[in-house]
Amino acid sequence: MNNQKLIIYEFEELYRILIEINNDVNLIIKKASKNDISYFISQPNTLILTQKKIAGLDNQIIFNDFPVHIVKLLEKINTQFLKINFNNQSDIMIGSYKFNLNSREMSQSNLKLKLTEKEINSIIYIFNSKDVVKIDELQSKVWGYQPKLETHTVETHIYRLRKKISKKFHDENFILTNKSGYEIVKKK
Length: 188
What we know:
Elements: E1 5-9, H1 12-25, E2 28-32, H2 37-41, E3 46-50, E4 60-62, H3 70-90, E5 91-94, E6 97-100, E7 105-108, E8 111-114, H4 117-128, H5 135-141, H6 153-169, E9 176-178, E10 181-183
Parallel strand pairs: 1-2, 1-3, 3-4
Antiparallel strand pairs: 5-6, 6-7, 7-8, 9-10
Protein backbone atom coordinates (compact mmCIF):
# COMPACT_ATOMS: atom_id res chain seq x y z
CA MET A 1 0.00 0.00 0.00
CA ASN A 2 2.42 2.77 -1.02
CA ASN A 3 0.93 5.28 -3.52
CA GLN A 4 -2.62 4.66 -2.43
CA LYS A 5 -4.57 7.55 -1.00
CA LEU A 6 -6.95 7.13 1.87
CA ILE A 7 -9.35 10.05 2.14
CA ILE A 8 -11.22 10.45 5.41
CA TYR A 9 -14.43 12.33 4.71
CA GLU A 10 -15.82 14.30 7.65
CA PHE A 11 -14.71 11.63 10.14
CA GLU A 12 -12.20 13.28 12.51
CA GLU A 13 -11.95 10.39 14.99
CA LEU A 14 -10.99 7.87 12.30
CA TYR A 15 -8.55 10.37 10.77
CA ARG A 16 -6.67 10.74 14.09
CA ILE A 17 -6.46 6.95 14.54
CA LEU A 18 -5.12 6.34 11.05
CA ILE A 19 -2.58 9.16 11.28
CA GLU A 20 -1.32 7.60 14.50
CA ILE A 21 -0.72 4.19 12.87
CA ASN A 22 0.30 5.48 9.44
CA ASN A 23 3.95 4.40 9.79
CA ASP A 24 2.72 0.82 9.98
CA VAL A 25 0.27 0.95 7.06
CA ASN A 26 2.22 3.21 4.67
CA LEU A 27 -0.72 5.06 3.11
CA ILE A 28 -1.19 8.64 2.03
CA ILE A 29 -3.90 9.83 4.42
CA LYS A 30 -5.84 13.04 3.78
CA LYS A 31 -8.78 14.69 5.45
CA ALA A 32 -11.64 15.95 3.27
CA SER A 33 -14.71 18.09 3.75
CA LYS A 34 -17.66 18.84 1.46
CA ASN A 35 -15.67 21.63 -0.18
CA ASP A 36 -12.78 19.47 -1.41
CA ILE A 37 -14.23 15.94 -1.74
CA SER A 38 -14.82 16.33 -5.50
CA TYR A 39 -11.08 16.84 -6.02
CA PHE A 40 -10.25 13.58 -4.24
CA ILE A 41 -12.96 11.57 -6.01
CA SER A 42 -11.22 12.06 -9.35
CA GLN A 43 -7.80 10.92 -8.07
CA PRO A 44 -6.50 7.44 -9.06
CA ASN A 45 -5.85 4.82 -6.36
CA THR A 46 -8.08 6.67 -3.93
CA LEU A 47 -10.37 5.19 -1.31
CA ILE A 48 -12.76 7.32 0.74
CA LEU A 49 -13.74 6.38 4.29
CA THR A 50 -16.94 7.96 5.51
CA GLN A 51 -19.89 7.62 7.84
CA LYS A 52 -22.27 9.01 5.20
CA LYS A 53 -22.69 7.44 1.77
CA ILE A 54 -21.52 9.63 -1.10
CA ALA A 55 -23.88 9.07 -4.04
CA GLY A 56 -22.34 7.88 -7.29
CA LEU A 57 -19.03 6.84 -5.77
CA ASP A 58 -17.75 3.26 -5.91
CA ASN A 59 -14.48 3.60 -4.01
CA GLN A 60 -15.80 4.20 -0.54
CA ILE A 61 -16.14 2.35 2.72
CA ILE A 62 -19.06 3.46 4.85
CA PHE A 63 -18.80 2.98 8.61
CA ASN A 64 -22.24 2.70 10.13
CA ASP A 65 -20.87 1.02 13.25
CA PHE A 66 -17.94 2.68 14.92
CA PRO A 67 -15.64 1.84 16.65
CA VAL A 68 -14.35 -1.01 14.57
CA HIS A 69 -11.51 -3.41 15.39
CA ILE A 70 -8.29 -2.15 13.80
CA VAL A 71 -7.56 -5.50 12.12
CA LYS A 72 -11.03 -5.50 10.52
CA LEU A 73 -10.51 -1.89 9.41
CA LEU A 74 -7.18 -2.69 7.76
CA GLU A 75 -8.67 -5.80 6.09
CA LYS A 76 -11.50 -3.72 4.62
CA ILE A 77 -9.07 -1.08 3.36
CA ASN A 78 -6.72 -3.65 1.86
CA THR A 79 -9.56 -5.57 0.19
CA GLN A 80 -11.00 -2.41 -1.32
CA PHE A 81 -7.59 -1.31 -2.68
CA LEU A 82 -7.13 -4.78 -4.22
CA LYS A 83 -10.50 -4.37 -5.97
CA ILE A 84 -9.51 -0.90 -7.20
CA ASN A 85 -6.20 -2.21 -8.57
CA PHE A 86 -7.90 -5.20 -10.19
CA ASN A 87 -10.40 -2.91 -11.95
CA ASN A 88 -7.69 -0.43 -12.99
CA GLN A 89 -5.62 -3.19 -14.55
CA SER A 90 -8.51 -4.88 -16.31
CA ASP A 91 -9.49 -2.04 -18.68
CA ILE A 92 -7.24 -0.64 -21.38
CA MET A 93 -7.97 1.69 -24.27
CA ILE A 94 -6.71 0.96 -27.75
CA GLY A 95 -7.81 3.64 -30.13
CA SER A 96 -11.51 4.23 -29.56
CA TYR A 97 -12.02 0.73 -28.17
CA LYS A 98 -12.08 -0.32 -24.55
CA PHE A 99 -10.74 -3.77 -23.75
CA ASN A 100 -11.67 -5.52 -20.53
CA LEU A 101 -8.95 -8.10 -19.97
CA ASN A 102 -10.90 -9.95 -17.29
CA SER A 103 -14.08 -10.48 -19.29
CA ARG A 104 -12.16 -10.54 -22.59
CA GLU A 105 -14.48 -8.01 -24.18
CA MET A 106 -13.85 -5.31 -26.73
CA SER A 107 -16.36 -2.47 -26.64
CA GLN A 108 -17.20 0.84 -28.20
CA SER A 109 -20.30 2.84 -27.30
CA ASN A 110 -22.96 0.21 -26.58
CA LEU A 111 -21.43 -2.49 -28.76
CA LYS A 112 -19.53 -5.36 -27.16
CA LEU A 113 -17.57 -8.20 -28.71
CA LYS A 114 -16.40 -11.30 -26.84
CA LEU A 115 -12.83 -12.28 -27.65
CA THR A 116 -10.73 -15.35 -26.94
CA GLU A 117 -7.59 -15.17 -24.84
CA LYS A 118 -5.42 -15.54 -27.97
CA GLU A 119 -7.33 -12.75 -29.70
CA ILE A 120 -6.86 -10.36 -26.77
CA ASN A 121 -3.18 -11.34 -26.43
CA SER A 122 -2.61 -10.86 -30.16
CA ILE A 123 -4.23 -7.41 -30.15
CA ILE A 124 -2.26 -6.26 -27.11
CA TYR A 125 1.01 -7.62 -28.49
CA ILE A 126 0.50 -5.92 -31.86
CA PHE A 127 -0.58 -2.65 -30.21
CA ASN A 128 2.39 -2.55 -27.81
CA SER A 129 4.92 -3.24 -30.56
CA LYS A 130 6.88 -0.25 -31.84
CA ASP A 131 7.20 -1.82 -35.29
CA VAL A 132 5.07 -3.91 -37.60
CA VAL A 133 4.74 -7.39 -36.06
CA LYS A 134 5.91 -10.21 -38.29
CA ILE A 135 3.90 -13.41 -38.48
CA ASP A 136 6.70 -15.56 -37.05
CA GLU A 137 7.05 -13.12 -34.13
CA LEU A 138 3.34 -13.49 -33.25
CA GLN A 139 3.68 -17.23 -33.77
CA SER A 140 6.51 -17.35 -31.27
CA LYS A 141 5.56 -14.69 -28.69
CA VAL A 142 1.78 -15.13 -28.51
CA TRP A 143 1.18 -18.65 -29.75
CA GLY A 144 4.30 -20.29 -28.33
CA TYR A 145 5.16 -21.98 -31.62
CA GLN A 146 8.68 -22.31 -32.93
CA PRO A 147 9.41 -19.49 -35.40
CA LYS A 148 10.48 -21.83 -38.22
CA LEU A 149 7.37 -24.02 -37.95
CA GLU A 150 5.44 -23.95 -41.24
CA THR A 151 1.86 -23.14 -40.27
CA HIS A 152 -0.80 -20.66 -41.27
CA THR A 153 -2.48 -20.62 -37.86
CA VAL A 154 -1.57 -17.00 -37.11
CA GLU A 155 -2.65 -15.69 -40.52
CA THR A 156 -5.96 -17.56 -40.29
CA HIS A 157 -6.48 -16.37 -36.74
CA ILE A 158 -5.84 -12.70 -37.58
CA TYR A 159 -8.01 -12.96 -40.70
CA ARG A 160 -10.94 -14.27 -38.62
CA LEU A 161 -10.32 -11.70 -35.88
CA ARG A 162 -10.39 -8.86 -38.42
CA LYS A 163 -13.67 -10.19 -39.87
CA LYS A 164 -15.16 -10.46 -36.39
CA ILE A 165 -14.21 -6.85 -35.58
CA SER A 166 -15.43 -5.63 -38.97
CA LYS A 167 -18.79 -7.36 -38.57
CA LYS A 168 -19.43 -5.94 -35.08
CA PHE A 169 -17.88 -2.46 -35.35
CA HIS A 170 -17.73 -1.93 -39.15
CA ASP A 171 -14.02 -1.20 -38.77
CA GLU A 172 -11.89 -2.57 -41.59
CA ASN A 173 -8.75 -0.77 -40.39
CA PHE A 174 -8.28 -1.78 -36.76
CA ILE A 175 -5.60 -4.39 -37.50
CA LEU A 176 -3.73 -3.46 -40.64
CA THR A 177 -1.86 -5.96 -42.77
CA ASN A 178 1.09 -5.20 -44.98
CA LYS A 179 3.84 -7.26 -46.57
CA SER A 180 5.90 -7.17 -43.35
CA GLY A 181 3.14 -8.19 -40.93
CA TYR A 182 0.46 -6.61 -38.72
CA GLU A 183 0.02 -3.30 -36.96
CA ILE A 184 -2.54 -1.30 -35.04
CA VAL A 185 -2.14 2.38 -35.82
CA LYS A 186 -1.72 4.45 -32.66
CA LYS A 187 -3.74 7.66 -32.57
CA LYS A 188 -1.60 10.73 -32.10
